[in-house]
Amino acid sequence: MTSPDTYFRKGFGLKADVQDALAADYAGRVVELLRENDNTLTVGDVTIRLAREFGFCYGVERAVEYAYQTRHKFPVDERRIFLVGEIIHNPNVNMRMREMGITILQPRPESLPDEPRFDYSGVTQNDVVLLPAFGVTIADFNALRALGCVVVDTTCGSVLHVWKRVDSYARDGFTVLIHGKHYHEETRATASQVLRYSGGQYVIVRDMNEAEYVCRYVESLGKGRATAGDAAALLERFKAAVSPGFDPARDLRRIGVANQTTMLARESLAIGEAVGAAMQRGFGEAYRSENFRTFDTICSATQEHQDAVLELLDESLHAMIVIGGYNSSNTISLAALCAERVSTYHVESAEAIDPDSRTIAYREAGVHHREAVAADWIPTTGPIRIGITAGASTPNNMIGEVVTRVLATRGLQLDVAQS
Question: I want to staple 338 with a disulfide (CB 3.0 to 4.6 A). Which of 95, 147, 300, 344 is the partner?
Fold first, then answer.
């Protein structure tokens, strides 16, 4: 139970009071120009095409707005405000949180799945704590409620939808197979929902390759061919991605599939189908119908961003720029989609583009933590068409700054004031 005096999930009714500050920090005239012209901007012989859906989603807007409402409600000289990790995966937005006097708590180097991930020893009953859009684990939530501090919960509704699905799986005795990144805040919070139930178990798969590894074991288990060695090998491979006490031979007989909301939608659907097919091959169709569940829990904004990118890729583009934090899962998914069709540059901000040296510093799609610098990434002359999209944690002003630098690389300027 939560006290209505110290737990807030719907803000403080101060939306009108913070709108000017939000607009000043995150709105962008360049994006407005693009929208006014069918998401197209042509300057000289450079045409910029912006994806139909891009940037801040409703959940992110809500989280950031609630942070501003909280600061407005509790001025710096009255209350300390802490944030459990990053509010969203955007370095500029999180820097703005710090500038507002909000202290960002860092995760502990190591913590067990059923332990709080963050250290709250410096938080008192008189403080205010913001929960991020990704949500927090049950252990973290309970630790904060025990302190009696004010908690402002900005957890995205799409994440809560996944939690309800996972809760139903665990309640009914199904092991939850989550398509996600085991280290991601959202996935950790989702997995923790399983631990509310005695004997609740989960396994997290990063991609189809990992899912197929689990599928092979499930099929072998159903046919009576799985050995103790096979189980040990699976546990070793997924040691950082399974629940405490996970036993493959016991816990992979009933499976419910869910996903981190920002993964590639088509891959999540394919993983669900693959797991179901493996169970049917191993145990039979009748068994599968009783012991397998799956449900698409990709959020609508993630799906819309991905669909819009696929539409844009049908055009003839010289390159795609994908803007968003390097730790932003939905941005990484967008970059992966784009890289299949066209030269793609995932950048965190406009600073990655240097018009003077004609270089762009970017994260390579599909290559973990590998950054590169491309020189002369666009030709110096001739008509070019550049596609742009942005992850759900990227504000409009950052998109506009990228457009400005792309044009500057060709020696062009956009007079926004007169546009």
Answer: 344
59-154: which CATH number, 3.40.190.170, 3.40.50.720, 3.40.50.11270, 3.40.50.300?
3.40.50.11270
**Chain mean position to CA 277:** 28
Q: Encoding tokens for residue 96?
A: 């703005």
Instruction: Report pLDDT for 417.
Output: 55
C-alpha distance from residue 324 to each of 110, 200, 390 (Å): 27, 35, 6
Looking up tokens 């900005």 gives: 154
Q: Where in the chain is CATH 3.40.1010.20?
A: 28-57+300-418, 158-294
Domain 28-57+300-418 of CATH type 3.40.1010.20 = yes
Q: Which residues make up the CATH 3.40.50.11270 domain(s) of the chain?
A: 59-154
Residue 369: pLDDT above 90?
no
136 touches 84 (CB < 8 A) = yes
Nearest to 400, CA basis, from 31, 33, 36:
31
Burial class (CB in 10 A: 0-12, 13-18, 19+), 300: middle
| pLDDT at position 418 over 60 | no
In the block, tokens 């539409």 appear at 311
Phi and psi dihedrals of 117, rounded to 5?
Answer: -85, -20
Residue 362, beta-bridge partner list = 372
pLDDT confidence tier of residue 383, bands split at 50, 70 and 90: very high
For residue range 104-113, what is the model confidence (pLDDT) as tens digits? 999 988 778 8
> Is 186 an annotated catalytic residue?
yes
Query: What count of residues does the chain have?
Result: 419
Rounded average pLDDT over 319-333: 95
CATH number attached to the domain at 158-294: 3.40.1010.20
Dist. CA 298–CA 180, nearest whole Å: 11
pLDDT at position 3 = 55
Q: Please tell me the pTM assigned to this model.
A: 0.92
CA angle 337, 341, 347 (to 5 degrees): 55
Instruction: Out of 65, 86, 185, 186, pick the active-site residue.
Output: 186
Q: Is 105 helix (H, G, I), strand (E, B) or coil?
A: strand
What pLDDT does 388 receive? Answer: 98
Residue 295 has pLDDT above 90, yes or no: no
Q: What is the pLDDT of residue 4?
A: 59
